[in-house]
Design goal:
Blueprint (H helix, E strand, L loop, with lengths): L1 E5 L10 H5 L6 E3 L13 H13 L6 E3 L5 H5 L4 H17 L4 E4 L11 E5 L5 E5 L1 H5 L3 H9 L11 H4 L2 H7 L5 H22 L2 E4 L18 H10 L5 E6 H5 L5 H8 L3 E6 L1 E4 L5 E4 L10 H10 L5 E4 L19 H22 L1
Parallel strand pairs: 1-2, 1-12, 3-4, 4-7, 7-8, 8-9, 9-12
Antiparallel strand pairs: 5-6, 6-11, 10-11
């Protein structure tokens, strides 16, 4: 298991590489060019610059999250061809500098959805919160305007250029079915995976967040059955998963069972915990298994059982010790650092017991 930490780049993340360096066990930075719009070709100069900054701090750059998929590809529009070509060339350029895994998603319109970014919890911390009844009774544009008002950082999936066309995009998805999305995902994979096989980059699709339909938009990567269908679209070891325990944990999924079934196709793990409520609400919790609905201990034990050698990062943490005043929503420093120590503690314990 190779521990990593997501970082949003100089000038775009108040967590520094120096901060991350002080977290035991972190080997790599999960990075991206976050100012690049979906569909743009990444320049070799920009890639090389980011590589130099990260490697100078003592980290590897093996994992990119994300190379975003343009909406026209998801919709299957004729214009998708140029965006797919840009995607393929970007993969080739990333491979040249040593990137080994690319995380992406195929969610229509939104990469993730919450109703509150800083919901206060009983202990005084706060976290990302999803209130299902509010989602069912709010216009998505109203929700976006509410949440983005006081946020001064780029939020993946909620980029200004994407949100500015929200009404137009929703119009394009009228009468668009899950089967339409499956068909367009298969087409994308058929074009991209041969390039991955050629250059040695493994693609890992991120589950939908939350793992059920919202705003009338289809969702695909939401459960064990659908993951199996996805992996069979293009049956290649380069077509795999960025398995997120929090996204799948937003619905009643048996995540250790999913790991048992598809462990050889998991290239990247996002480990986090969510507390799920009977009414469909959920909130980010600490990484401790007893604090949420995801058995994070069993998740790590199951990965160890299969000899997992892929990449792991702590995902969304709570905002603690006042960091909500400066932290990116879900991506502060302290709770993710605590999460790393919890994950590594479980792993080390299993490892030691296995050797004794």
């Amino acid at each position: 298991m190779k521990m990593t930490f997501r970082w949003y780049g100089e000038g775009n993340d108040k967590v520094t590489l120096g901060n991350i360096k002080q977290i035991p066990g972190v080997e790599g930075i999960v990075w991206s060019l976050h100012d690049m719009a979906a569909g743009e070709l990444w320049s070799e100069e920009r890639i090389a610059k980011e590589k130099a900054i990260i490697e100078a701090a003592g980290f590897h750059i093996d994992v990119v999250e994300s190379v975003n998929v343009h909406e026209d590809i998801k919709l299957g529009l004729p214009s998708r061809e140029k965006y797919i070509e840009n995607y393929k060339e970007t993969l080739r350029r990333l491979a040249k500098v040593g990137v080994k895994v690319v995380c992406y998603n195929f969610m229509p319109v939104f990469d993730w959805t919450r109703t509150e970014l800083y919901k206060e919890m009983e202990d005084g911390s706060n976290a990302l919160f999803f209130e299902k009844s509010k989602i069912e009774n709010i216009d998505p544009i109203e929700l976006i305007e509410k949440l983005s008002t006081n946020v001064d950082v780029t939020m993946p999936g909620w980029e200004p250029e994407r949100l500015s066309r929200l009404k137009e995009t929703f119009k394009l998805y009228e009468n668009f079915t899950a089967e339409d999305l499956w068909k367009n995902l298969e087409y994308f994979l058929e074009q991209v995976i041969p390039v991955c096989e050629e250059v040695g980059i493994k693609m890992g699709i991120h589950p939908d967040d939350p793992a059920f339909p919202i705003f009338g938009l289809p969702r695909l990567i939401i459960n064990k059955e659908n993951i199996g269908r996805f992996l069979n679209l293009v049956d290649s070891p380069y077509n795999g998963l960025s398995l997120c325990t929090g996204s799948l944990g937003s619905a009643n999924n048996d995540i250790p069972d999913i790991i048992d079934a598809y462990h050889d196709r998991i290239h990247f793990m996002h480990i986090r915990n969510v507390k799920r409520y009977d009414n469909g609400d959920f909130i980010e919790a600490s990484h401790r298994a007893c604090d949420g609905s995801v058995d994070t201990v069993k998740v790590v034990q199951t990965l160890h059982k299969h000899g997992y050698e892929g990449y792991v990062r702590p995902d969304h943490g709570r905002h603690i010790w006042g960091e909500e005043k400066w932290a990116r929503p879900g991506y502060g420093l302290y709770d993710r650092a605590l999460g790393i120590m919890y994950i590594l503690g479980v792993w080390d314990s299993v490892e030691k017991n296995a050797k004794s």
